[in-house]
Protein backbone atom coordinates (compact mmCIF):
# COMPACT_ATOMS: atom_id res chain seq x y z
CA UNK A 1 0.00 0.00 0.00
CA UNK A 2 2.84 2.37 0.90
CA UNK A 3 4.69 1.78 -2.38
CA UNK A 4 1.55 2.50 -4.37
CA UNK A 5 1.13 5.77 -2.54
CA UNK A 6 4.72 6.81 -3.27
CA UNK A 7 4.30 5.97 -6.98
CA UNK A 8 1.06 7.92 -7.17
CA UNK A 9 2.65 10.90 -5.47
CA UNK A 10 5.58 10.82 -7.94
CA UNK A 11 3.19 10.81 -10.91
CA UNK A 12 1.33 13.80 -9.47
CA UNK A 13 4.57 15.72 -8.93
CA UNK A 14 5.79 15.02 -12.49
CA UNK A 15 2.43 16.03 -13.92
CA UNK A 16 2.59 19.29 -12.00
CA UNK A 17 6.06 20.00 -13.41
CA UNK A 18 4.92 19.53 -16.98
CA UNK A 19 5.90 15.87 -17.31
CA UNK A 20 9.06 14.32 -18.69
CA UNK A 21 10.11 13.98 -22.37
CA UNK A 22 11.09 10.31 -22.50
CA UNK A 23 11.98 10.56 -26.22
CA UNK A 24 13.77 13.55 -27.79
CA UNK A 25 11.75 15.39 -30.41
CA UNK A 26 12.72 14.68 -34.02
CA UNK A 27 13.25 17.82 -36.08
CA UNK A 28 11.25 17.33 -39.30
CA UNK A 29 13.46 19.88 -41.04
CA UNK A 30 16.75 18.10 -40.25
CA UNK A 31 18.72 16.45 -43.09
CA UNK A 32 17.61 12.82 -43.41
CA UNK A 33 19.07 11.66 -46.73
CA UNK A 34 21.65 12.63 -49.36
CA UNK A 35 21.56 11.88 -53.08
CA UNK A 36 24.95 12.02 -54.84
CA UNK A 37 25.84 12.43 -58.52
CA UNK A 38 29.03 12.89 -60.55
CA UNK A 39 29.00 14.75 -63.86
CA UNK A 40 31.59 12.32 -65.28
CA UNK A 41 31.65 8.52 -65.10
CA UNK A 42 35.36 8.15 -65.95
CA UNK A 43 37.18 11.47 -65.60
CA UNK A 44 40.74 11.77 -66.89
CA UNK A 45 43.68 12.34 -64.56
CA UNK A 46 44.49 16.04 -64.90
CA UNK A 47 40.81 16.80 -65.29
CA UNK A 48 38.05 16.85 -62.70
CA UNK A 49 34.58 15.66 -61.76
CA UNK A 50 31.81 17.72 -60.20
CA UNK A 51 30.21 15.98 -57.21
CA UNK A 52 26.74 17.25 -56.31
CA UNK A 53 24.86 16.43 -53.12
CA UNK A 54 21.11 16.92 -52.87
CA UNK A 55 20.05 16.99 -49.22
CA UNK A 56 16.49 16.06 -48.27
CA UNK A 57 14.29 15.97 -45.18
CA UNK A 58 12.58 12.88 -43.81
CA UNK A 59 9.48 13.60 -45.91
CA UNK A 60 11.55 13.63 -49.13
CA UNK A 61 11.50 17.37 -49.73
CA UNK A 62 14.70 19.41 -50.08
CA UNK A 63 16.18 21.09 -47.02
CA UNK A 64 16.59 24.48 -48.68
CA UNK A 65 19.54 26.80 -48.13
CA UNK A 66 22.01 27.05 -45.27
CA UNK A 67 22.69 23.39 -44.43
CA UNK A 68 26.44 22.80 -44.08
CA UNK A 69 27.76 19.92 -46.20
CA UNK A 70 31.29 18.50 -45.80
CA UNK A 71 33.26 16.61 -48.46
CA UNK A 72 36.32 14.39 -48.02
CA UNK A 73 38.21 12.08 -50.40
CA UNK A 74 40.34 8.98 -49.98
CA UNK A 75 44.10 9.00 -50.66
CA UNK A 76 44.99 10.35 -54.09
CA UNK A 77 41.91 12.52 -54.31
CA UNK A 78 41.26 16.16 -53.49
CA UNK A 79 37.99 18.07 -53.07
CA UNK A 80 37.54 21.83 -53.31
CA UNK A 81 35.69 23.18 -51.45
CA UNK A 82 35.75 20.73 -48.55
CA UNK A 83 32.63 22.28 -47.01
CA UNK A 84 29.85 24.47 -48.33
CA UNK A 85 26.27 25.36 -47.42
CA UNK A 86 23.36 24.16 -49.54
CA UNK A 87 21.71 26.58 -51.94
CA UNK A 88 17.96 27.20 -52.15
CA UNK A 89 17.47 24.02 -54.18
CA UNK A 90 19.04 21.90 -51.42
CA UNK A 91 22.22 21.14 -53.36
CA UNK A 92 25.92 21.56 -52.58
CA UNK A 93 28.78 20.80 -54.97
CA UNK A 94 32.52 20.27 -54.93
CA UNK A 95 35.21 19.62 -57.54
CA UNK A 96 37.10 16.32 -57.31
CA UNK A 97 40.58 15.85 -58.77
CA UNK A 98 43.04 12.94 -58.56
CA UNK A 99 46.82 12.55 -58.65
CA UNK A 100 46.65 9.27 -60.58
CA UNK A 101 44.33 6.71 -62.15
CA UNK A 102 42.07 4.56 -60.00
CA UNK A 103 38.94 4.80 -57.83
CA UNK A 104 38.45 7.67 -55.40
CA UNK A 105 35.76 7.50 -52.71
CA UNK A 106 34.16 10.76 -51.65
CA UNK A 107 32.33 10.94 -48.31
CA UNK A 108 29.64 13.59 -48.01
CA UNK A 109 28.34 14.52 -44.56
CA UNK A 110 25.83 16.77 -42.82
CA UNK A 111 25.21 17.08 -39.09
CA UNK A 112 22.86 14.09 -39.14
CA UNK A 113 23.56 11.93 -42.21
CA UNK A 114 26.39 10.92 -44.55
CA UNK A 115 26.85 9.04 -47.81
CA UNK A 116 29.66 7.99 -50.17
CA UNK A 117 30.22 7.92 -53.92
CA UNK A 118 33.06 6.29 -55.89
CA UNK A 119 34.58 7.87 -59.02
CA UNK A 120 37.25 6.10 -61.09
CA UNK A 121 39.83 8.26 -62.83
CA UNK A 122 41.52 6.97 -65.99
CA UNK A 123 44.95 7.76 -67.37
CA UNK A 124 45.32 10.10 -70.36
CA UNK A 125 46.87 7.17 -72.27
CA UNK A 126 45.47 3.64 -72.04
CA UNK A 127 46.77 0.64 -73.98
CA UNK A 128 45.08 -2.62 -74.96
CA UNK A 129 46.20 -5.76 -76.82
CA UNK A 130 43.84 -7.66 -79.13
CA UNK A 131 45.57 -10.93 -78.17
CA UNK A 132 46.95 -11.06 -74.61
CA UNK A 133 48.81 -14.31 -75.44
CA UNK A 134 51.12 -15.38 -78.27
CA UNK A 135 52.45 -18.92 -78.76
CA UNK A 136 56.17 -19.20 -78.00
CA UNK A 137 56.35 -22.20 -80.34
CA UNK A 138 54.53 -20.99 -83.42
CA UNK A 139 54.83 -17.23 -82.87
CA UNK A 140 52.13 -14.78 -83.85
CA UNK A 141 50.97 -11.20 -83.55
CA UNK A 142 48.76 -8.91 -81.49
CA UNK A 143 47.23 -5.58 -82.42
CA UNK A 144 48.17 -2.89 -79.89
CA UNK A 145 45.83 0.09 -79.52
CA UNK A 146 46.51 3.24 -77.53
CA UNK A 147 43.68 5.60 -76.62
CA UNK A 148 44.61 9.20 -75.87
CA UNK A 149 42.18 11.52 -74.06
CA UNK A 150 42.24 15.21 -73.33
CA UNK A 151 41.81 16.30 -69.71
CA UNK A 152 38.11 17.00 -70.34
CA UNK A 153 37.63 13.39 -71.46
CA UNK A 154 37.32 14.08 -75.18
CA UNK A 155 39.43 12.10 -77.73
CA UNK A 156 42.77 13.67 -78.64
CA UNK A 157 42.86 13.75 -82.44
CA UNK A 158 46.13 13.97 -84.39
CA UNK A 159 48.41 13.22 -81.43
CA UNK A 160 51.69 11.41 -82.06
CA UNK A 161 52.09 8.27 -79.97
CA UNK A 162 55.42 6.48 -79.51
CA UNK A 163 55.26 2.71 -78.99
CA UNK A 164 58.08 0.64 -77.49
CA UNK A 165 58.26 -3.08 -76.72
CA UNK A 166 60.49 -5.10 -74.42
CA UNK A 167 60.56 -8.06 -76.83
CA UNK A 168 59.23 -9.00 -80.25
CA UNK A 169 58.97 -6.22 -82.80
CA UNK A 170 56.72 -3.80 -84.63
CA UNK A 171 56.67 -4.61 -88.34
CA UNK A 172 57.28 -1.71 -90.73
CA UNK A 173 57.25 -1.73 -94.52
CA UNK A 174 60.71 -3.19 -94.95
CA UNK A 175 62.22 -3.30 -91.45
CA UNK A 176 61.51 -4.81 -88.04
CA UNK A 177 61.78 -2.39 -85.12
CA UNK A 178 61.15 -2.16 -81.35
CA UNK A 179 60.16 1.51 -81.39
CA UNK A 180 57.67 3.15 -83.71
CA UNK A 181 55.12 5.96 -83.86
CA UNK A 182 51.50 6.31 -84.92
CA UNK A 183 48.97 9.16 -85.02
CA UNK A 184 45.62 9.12 -83.27
CA UNK A 185 42.42 9.19 -85.33
CA UNK A 186 39.13 11.02 -84.65
CA UNK A 187 38.40 8.67 -81.75
CA UNK A 188 41.78 9.29 -80.11
CA UNK A 189 43.09 5.84 -81.03
CA UNK A 190 46.44 4.86 -82.57
CA UNK A 191 47.51 1.32 -83.36
CA UNK A 192 50.49 -0.86 -84.23
CA UNK A 193 51.06 -4.60 -84.59
CA UNK A 194 53.39 -6.54 -82.31
CA UNK A 195 54.96 -9.58 -83.99
CA UNK A 196 56.89 -12.43 -82.36
CA UNK A 197 58.69 -14.99 -84.53
CA UNK A 198 58.50 -18.73 -83.68
CA UNK A 199 60.92 -19.61 -80.87
CA UNK A 200 62.20 -16.02 -80.60
CA UNK A 201 60.87 -15.36 -77.08
CA UNK A 202 60.77 -17.94 -74.28
CA UNK A 203 57.51 -19.37 -72.98
CA UNK A 204 56.23 -17.53 -69.90
CA UNK A 205 57.84 -14.22 -70.85
CA UNK A 206 55.66 -11.15 -70.37
CA UNK A 207 56.29 -8.62 -73.12
CA UNK A 208 55.62 -5.04 -72.01
CA UNK A 209 54.38 -2.60 -74.62
CA UNK A 210 54.39 1.08 -73.68
CA UNK A 211 52.64 3.94 -75.47
CA UNK A 212 53.79 7.50 -74.76
CA UNK A 213 52.17 10.76 -75.78
CA UNK A 214 53.83 13.89 -74.49
CA UNK A 215 54.52 13.45 -70.77
CA UNK A 216 51.86 10.75 -70.38
CA UNK A 217 52.17 7.02 -70.94
CA UNK A 218 50.34 3.75 -70.50
CA UNK A 219 51.26 0.12 -70.99
CA UNK A 220 49.97 -3.40 -71.45
CA UNK A 221 51.52 -6.89 -71.53
CA UNK A 222 51.42 -9.84 -73.88
CA UNK A 223 52.39 -13.23 -72.42
CA UNK A 224 54.19 -15.97 -74.32
CA UNK A 225 52.08 -19.11 -73.98
CA UNK A 226 52.93 -22.75 -74.88
Would you kindly provide a written description of the structure presented here, covering whatever features stand out?
The chain is mainly beta and 226 residues long. Helix content is 7%, strand content 49%. A hairpin with a 2-residue loop joins β17 (206-213) and β18 (216-225). The longest helix is centred in the N-terminal third of the chain and has 15 residues, at 2-16. The radius of gyration is 30 Å and the shape is elongated.
Q: What is the topological layout?
A:
Blueprint: H1 2-16, E1 33-38, E2 49-56, E3 68-73, E4 77-80, E5 83-85, E6 91-98, E7 102-109, E8 114-121, E9 125-129, E10 133-135, E11 140-148, E12 160-165, E13 169-171, E14 176-177, E15 179-183, E16 189-196, E17 206-213, E18 216-225
The residue ranges in which pLDDT falls below 50 over 5 or more consecutive positions are 5-15
Provide the succession of SSEs.
Answer: HEEEEEEEEEEEEEEEEEE
| Largest sheet, spatial ordering of strands | 9-11-16-13-14
Cα(first) to Cα(last) distance is 94 Å
**What's the average pLDDT?**
89
Largest sheet properties: 5 strands, antiparallel
Given the structure, what is the number of helices?
1
| CATH structural architecture of the largest domain | Sandwich
Strand content: over 45%
The rough form would be described as elongated
